[in-house]
Amino acid sequence: MNIVKLSGLNAQTLSRPFLSAAARPSLRGRLLIAACGAILLSACHQRETAPPEPKPVVALAIHPDGRTPSASLPAQVEARYSTPLSFRVGGKVTERTVHLGDTVKAGQTVALLDPTDLRNNLVNARAQLDAAEHRLVYARQQLDRDKAQAQANLIAPAQMEQTQDAYATALAQRDSAVAQMALATDHLRYAALTADHDGVITSEDADTGQNVQAAQAVYHLDWTGDVDIVCDAPERTLGALTVGSKASVSLSALPGKTFEARVREVSPAADPQSRTWRVKLTLAAPSPEVRLGMTANVAFDAVGDAAAARPFALPVTALFHKGEDPAVWVVRAGSDTLELRPVSIARYDERTVSVTGGLHDGDRVVMQGVHAVSANQHVQVVAPLHPEDFSS
Prior knowledge:
Layout: H1 11-15, H2 27-49, E1 55-61, E2 70-79, E3 82-86, E4 91-96, E5 103-104, E6 109-113, H3 116-151, H4 157-189, E7 192-194, E8 199-204, E9 211-212, E10 217-223, E11 227-233, E12 246-251, E13 254-266, E14 277-283, E15 295-301, H5 305-308, E16 312-315, E17 320-322, E18 325-331, E19 338-342, E20 344-348, E21 352-357, E22 364-366, E23 379-382
Parallel strand pairs: 1-23
Antiparallel strand pairs: 1-22, 2-11, 2-15, 3-10, 4-6, 4-9, 5-8, 6-7, 8-10, 11-14, 12-13, 12-15, 13-14, 16-21, 17-18, 18-19, 18-22, 20-21
Helix pairs in contact: 3-4
């Protein structure tokens, strides 16, 4: 038996069975298997690296609209003068003759108090006046007698002085009674509450049968005549809110009409709760169509750097957000990928917004479907079916 020395082989190698020549694959078979594997790997690699199809989006190139940017604030039409109507004496309300929204004239009676106590006070004051007049007559007669006796040296000088003092006291009491009589008469007249000016009742603050105190409001009256457009302005708009500044006012109840106005008054301090400044404007040409309580929108002409900017008018459907700031989707030139760009908005209208910062002339902005896209997404820009819907 020949012993063959095997070096470099371990026990595991020796334990593997040797394939016979018949069991080994031929060279042609091995080449066929290798080719199939290469084809399969190539197919898998192609499926993994295939780029996604671009998403169609509606986008348009934007251009400045040529309008001067402005700060827009919600407002309300209010009377320039508004006063509470209250009784000048206390009592029980027995009748109210007007109600919320009624128009009243100056001098018209709007409410009544129970006059019983006031009438009794007047009777008492009249009785005190009668008594004071009788005492004054007696004191006058006594003074005349004592004067005659004093000339005849029939009474002492001290007695004459006492008579003169009694007469002066009676005269003062008569004058006080006259004043009390006039006051009681006025109180009885105050039982009828009348309007001081022409106006409209804007609130009812007391009910029939209620006991009210003097100066407690029963109604609130907005005077007819001059009206103000009142809005609350945030701190960022104070630069455009000086007395005399021009503004344009549009009313929801009067679509298509714009009124010129000027700032009449700016509150010197901010409201401690809302941290806004109360601004009052006067219409240059008041119209009877402008009624109290109408909602309005005030557009102030921008100043400084904002006035030099040329705004872009975009539909509200193009607005998105980046954090808490407004933003729009912009299609990058060349790559057709999306970029979320923050913008500055100067004015919100019913269907459009005025953008003054963050965009450039010719930028392609996504006009709708802004919630269905994402950053860096490859898109295909398509024109809208109705381009007039996105025109400014």
